Amino acid sequence: MYTYEKEVLRNRLRMLSIRLPHIHSVVVAAYIGIGSCYEKNEKLGLSHLLEHMLFRGPRGFKDSLALLQAVDDIGGEIDAYTSPEHSAILIQVHKKHSKKALDILGDILLGGNFREEDIYTEKHIIQEETSQFMDNKGDYVCLDDISYNLMWKTGLPNSTLFGNKKTIASITKEDLEEHYDRFFVPENVVLCISGNFDKGDVQSWVGDTFGGFHGKLNVIKPPLIVEQKAPKCVFKKASSHTTHFKLCHKAYPYKHPNVLTALLIADVMGGGISSRLSSNLRERLGLVYDITSYPTLFSDVGSVDIYTSTKKANFEKTMTAVMGEVDKLVESGISREELTRTEERVYSQMQFIMDSPLAMANWFGTEELLIKPVKPDRPEIQAQKVHNITPEKVSKVIREVFVPERRNLVVVGPTGFRERKRVKKLLE
């Protein structure tokens, strides 16, 4: 089993301690309330570039290569990411290297050294990173970004949340420094230590490393556009033999009372290899290799999504089959037998979270940053709640979520005019 403790330091930095004494590793992670939702359209990609630059200008290291070498030398793993509303830096090491990992995390988080030559290099790296989401003509075709913009933002739905060549090029050293000073303050950061460690030692090390961390948060999150009265769709032509699409239904934000029910419904639809979508579209019809359904959650909005790809000749058949399963879900709901079977699957997967220090850090760290709960919603408690979901509750959520006025479709690949017209009709 594990123990969880939260401590707020004098500078208002929140520290979460999740002790798993039976394992050999430790994860030290920082979760920061920063992302593209705070950016102006002309500076999109600023948060993402800043995340990259943190590794270029750490304290105590000559350069990023020395930093990465230090992680390699202790057999550790390091990662970072930027989402629309938060970023994270994560380091996993053997328990005997806990202090070194915390020191490295502090060097990254508190560095803030932005050299012009490093900015130039990192901009080119980001262009290479985003090029994987470009088609042969150079158009941006990332389904996740397009669907996010289509559902929640005004303006062009095909703008990239990571920034494009123009917006990234426009970002200056002064932009990075201002963005860093604005968001990298103790109140906007959650420090999470998860795994096998001595709590007394960690408290002392955190005090030494982060005691001088200071600054005041002065940020207001811009509201997202949530009103929708009819289905919306975006078709992006791309030169390919395969058509990818993502069907999204607006649902609930992170930690909404109905989120667990939405998760269960998504799992029934496309959570496993025997799910409804997989059974029908893959096993029976042979239209797809893989198809999945899952919730996408933010602090203020959320959706239940279905993603798959198929060869262009089968796109309309595949879309028709997917909508057939959605219609069946609305008309017939979920049987008691199916509900019981899926409950056990979801329950087991939530229990598995407690086997991973990284999963535990993400569970508690993200919740604390985005929700600031009075009491954390532990994975074992959520797992038990799964068994309390009734068929009536499931039916209510289905009727609320899977309706045309919450429906959004993004298609990337070769499609014809008449084909698009028929697919639009399906959404209604």
Walk me through the structure:
The chain is an alpha+beta fold and 428 residues long. It folds into two domains: 3-210, Cytochrome Bc1 Complex, Chain A, domain 1; 232-427, Metalloenzyme, LuxS/M16 peptidase-like (Cytochrome Bc1 Complex, Chain A, domain 1). The chain is 44% helix and 18% strand. It contains 16 helices and eleven strands. The protein has helices spanning 46-54, 64-73, 98-109, 116-131, 143-152, 165-170, 173-183, 199-210, 259-270, 276-284, 315-332, 336-353, 357-371, 379-386, 391-401, 417-427, and strands spanning 3-8, 14-19, 25-32, 77-82, 87-94, 189-195, 232-236, 242-250, 291-297, 302-311, 407-412. Strand 9 (291-297) and strand 10 (302-311) form a beta hairpin. Helix 1 packs across helix 7 and helix 10 (276-284) packs antiparallel against helix 11 (315-332). The mean pLDDT is 92.
Brief digest:
The chain has 428 residues and is an alpha+beta fold. Helices cover 44% and strands 18% of the residues. Strand 4 and strand 5 form a beta hairpin.
